[in-house]
Amino acid sequence: MRRSRGTLSLLVTLGAGTCAQVVPPPAVVVVAAPAPSPLCAAPPLAALRADALAPDRYARRVLYTWTTAEQADGLRRGGALLTRSASPTHGRAMYDVVLERLAAQRIPEAQLLRRPRFRRARFAWHAPWATRRGWEGEEYGEHLVRVTLRPTAWVVRMSWRGEYDATDLAGTPVPMATVLAHPERIGAVLFVQNGSPSDGSYAPTPPDDRGYHREYVLPNESMIESWELDTATVGNDVDHAIATVAAARAWVEARCAGGDLRAAATARGAWELTDDHGEVDTAWFRALAFPSSRYDLTPSSLDALLAALRRTPRTGGSRIANVPGQRRRVLDPRAGESRAPIAPSNWETGPNSRLWI
Known about the structure:
Blueprint: E1 12-14, E2 18-20, H1 45-51, E3 62-67, H2 69-76, H3 94-104, H4 108-113, E4 122-124, E5 143-149, E6 154-159, E7 164-168, H5 176-181, E8 186-193, E9 213-218, E10 224-229, H6 232-253, H7 280-285, H8 299-310, E11 318-321
Parallel strand pairs: 6-8
Antiparallel strand pairs: 1-2, 3-5, 4-9, 5-10, 6-7, 8-9, 10-11
């Protein structure tokens, strides 16, 4: 009997007539890939782009500073907003250390910002969620102060190398010669610590990194229009921050990236970019002040950030209009004097100008 080519007999003769059955191969089970989450089609880029700080547009009129319950209570009792030239716990900030080094090199802008009237300051950022947990070794407090600059304020940008430029709040460049001639218009300084000198002139803090960070410095209370804490406006700002972080958290949970996201330690590489190229981690990094693991795009880090934001007090505060000539006490005993804001038109010749920041 002729068989078709390739056909095998189901019976095989073994020895004295015993037979064995050939077992067919197991069936192949095909598992369909899970459908992608709808979140992946709408990444939280719009919210993150609104909080990005681009190198070509860095002036912000509204800034935020986190503070302790003690300092918040002092503000409610009539205290001045800017009271300290150094932290009683952590000492001088890197900004002050770098500024001193640059002033010693006779750089005019650094010498200006080292004048006594600019010594007391407060550090701030434009996106409150991006500084809520501070960085390794330092947190700032759970009370959020919303600071609004006067519309005529200028913002100076200062790099650790001693490079300076300035813009008004509309982003129009202001020549540094004009800033030096009218320092009363300085409302904020954006300090960018994106490198480290090779001459050993100062040590990074904390010592296990290079101290890379960005921050706004508020050194001139006369260019502050108002500040407020624990108000409905601040509560709305906190809700907006929570929504931004929660959207990023949901996007991470959906594993839309298809792999591991870059760590926040690499964030400073995005600080010079003018575009995020549609990458959520790049957009996130462009809003950060610190390349700290506390802001990693991981569920645990984002959950900790959300929990911290949700603890922000929202009631019992008020908005303080900064009226030139209205005296406000410096309630921090380390500050040493009380003073009144000087009208910007009298900034250089006002009676308190030697004491003014």
